Amino acid sequence: MAYAIKAEIENPQAEAFVFTAQKTMYGGKAIAESDVVFLFASENEGGQGLVARGVVTSSQAIPKRPDLERQTPRVSVSIRRTASAAKRLGRDELKRFKDWQDGRPQTELNFKFYRQATNKIVGISDEAAAFLDGFF
Q: What is the rounded CA–CA span in Å between residue 32 and residue 48?
């Protein structure tokens, strides 16, 4: 399975990225070492959308807090860049894909990243991963 992360990325040109205690949704908590991940610089923090593809070099689940009844699983990951995006893909390009039942990879990405504005790590389908590979 491939993954995608939308987060604040201070240096989109960096060779390595570290994300601490990131929220996970849609299977994102299963991310592990050697998984492929697509990195989106969050537009909420001034980013531009898809910036890189990488491979997870380390992954560690954050223990749940006993004082909270309900909480989103969180994971800390380190990622090594393997490619830089050659074409733009972000909220503006994906927002028209709103038919949640159409099965298109663009719709999957819009749903998982932009229906809720929070930054997160998500699991993505093989079709979405193949679609994203076309941007490199």
A: 26
